[in-house]
Every structure is written in C-alpha cells, then in structure tokens.
Amino acid sequence: MTATQAEAIVIGASAGALEALSILLPALPQDYPLPIMVVVHLSPDRESMLAELLRAKCSLDAREVEDKEPIQGGTIYFAPPDYHLLVEVDKHLSLSIEEPVHHSRPSIDVLFETAADAYGAALIGIVLTGASNDGSQGLKAVVSAGGTALIQRPDLAYIPTMPQAALDACPEAQVMSLEQITAYLQERSTPL
Length: 192
Fold this sequence. Notes:
Layout: E1 8-13, H1 17-24, E2 36-40, H2 50-57, E3 61-64, E4 69-70, E5 75-78, E6 84-87, E7 92-96, H3 108-119, E8 123-127, H4 136-144, E9 148-152, H5 161-169, E10 174-176, H6 178-187
Parallel strand pairs: 1-2, 1-8, 2-5, 3-5, 8-9, 9-10
Antiparallel strand pairs: 4-7, 6-7
Helix pairs in contact: 3-4, 4-5
C-alpha cells in the first residue's frame, strides 16, 4: 500500500495533555520537516504556558499562533486560550472567536476539519487523552479526506473519554500507545 506523503500533523488533547505532549513532541528531531498544529482545552481566562513549557523540552520551535501566520515546517503551533485555530486552504493559520464547540474554544473539531480541507490525504490527525468527545468528528473529517487517523490507546490515556469517542467515530483509525505514536511520527521525518 502506498501512503501519501504527510505534509502536516494536527493534535487534539484535553485533561492530561501536558504529560502526553511531553512524551510525543520532545522526541521529534530538530530537522523534523512537518508543521504540527495543537489544540489543548484551556481555561479561557488564563494565559497559557503550554508553548513555553514545551519549547523548553523540544528541539522544534513551539509557539502560540498569531492570526494569519503562514504555516512553516518544523514548528509546533498552539492555539491560544479562548480562540479557535483554523487552517486556511492557502496554508495560513487563523484565529476565530466564533461560538464554542462542545463547550470548548479552542475546539479540536474546528482545527481538524479545517486542516482536513486544506491538506486532504496529506494530513495526520491525532487524538490524545481528554474528558469530552471533542475531536471525534474532526478525526472523522480527516479520515473522509483520505488522511491518517491516530488515537492514543484509551486504556493508557490519563482520561480515556476523548480517545474512546474518537475510536467510536473512526473505528478504522490506528490505536497506539504514546511511544508507538512517537515512533510513527519519527518515521515521517524522512520521505516515504
């Protein structure tokens, strides 16, 4: 089976996100070619330290998104608190204060659905630990666009609700431990 060359990665997580991302993202090498867009459910009224915490652990640049920023490879983009993160078809990132989705802004579904429109089969979508069903419809959109769906094993997640909801919506997704997801992403650092 010939796989489409991946061009971008989207990750969604909620409760337990810092621990999960602290395993996945620091394992990626400095010359990792793909951009990584991340939505973590955050308190809307507090500044997020997520990008700073992970920047200190990662070889890649990690930062909060600025509206209309062009997407660059080898960069980890975090949605700021209280903004939806969208991927435009021209490969720019935009921020929105539209209504919350699944009681969340930023919403994982919004990121995944817009990224699926922009990247199609060249997208890898990953749903990690969390306590809602946000991300399940977005991951379904990734699969419908021909992209790759990865889900953290619910039995190994800090909170299994979100990965289980994603698995229920996308039974064809690959279910992996964090270490297996890390290995999968590392393999994508070289052309297929």
